[in-house]
Design goal:
By secondary structure, the protein is mainly α. It is built from six helices and three strands. Helix 1 packs across helix 3 (29-44), helix 1 crosses helix 5 (54-67) and helix 1 (3-17) packs across helix 6 (69-92). It binds zinc ion.
Length: 142
């Protein structure tokens, strides 16, 4: 699988796992969720390994997420953040003050106990207010 197909799948799985897709998409949510489920099931089908259709499924996923301006913004920020993180891992991580690269439009929320982190990829993507483990308020990471 090529890198951009893998990233598309990661993004699609992540956005699907966020149960607050409804506020992101409003009335279009149910149709988008159905289409996402269909394409993700298609992408995960075992025969996709061999029949060469996976790039087409990934292209459909990208088209779906780019069709709505809110999911497009979310996807673009997700992809940008992933690539900045990879750049960090490649060698900038140990430089003082450079451990998190801010990406415009992204906000990270962390539990003060450091066990939980939520990355808000767009302003429509509403983070939980409390840590699921500690029941205490999350704080914005600078
Ligand atoms: Zn916690």
């Amino acid at each position: 699988m090529n890198k951009s197909d893998q990233e598309t799948l990661d993004a699609a799985n992540e956005i699907r796992s966020r149960l607050h897709l409804h506020p992101i998409l409003g009335n279009a949510a149910e149709a988008v969720e159905r289409e996402l489920d269909k394409l993700l099931a298609e992408a995960n089908a075992p025969e996709r390994e061999s029949d060469g259709q996976l790039p087409n499924v990934c292209m459909d996923l990208r088209d779906l997420l780019r069709k709505n301006e809110n999911t497009r913004e979310w996807l673009d920020n997700f992809l940008q953040f992933q690539s900045e993180q990879r750049a960090d891992i490649r060698g900038h991580k140990n430089m003082p003050g450079n451990s998190t690269t801010p990406v415009q439009g992204i906000q990270i929320y962390v539990c003060p106990e450091k066990d939980y982190e939520y990355i808000q990829y767009s302003r429509w993507d509403s983070p939980p207010r409390i840590c699921p483990n500690h029941n205490i308020a999350l704080k914005k990471k600078i």
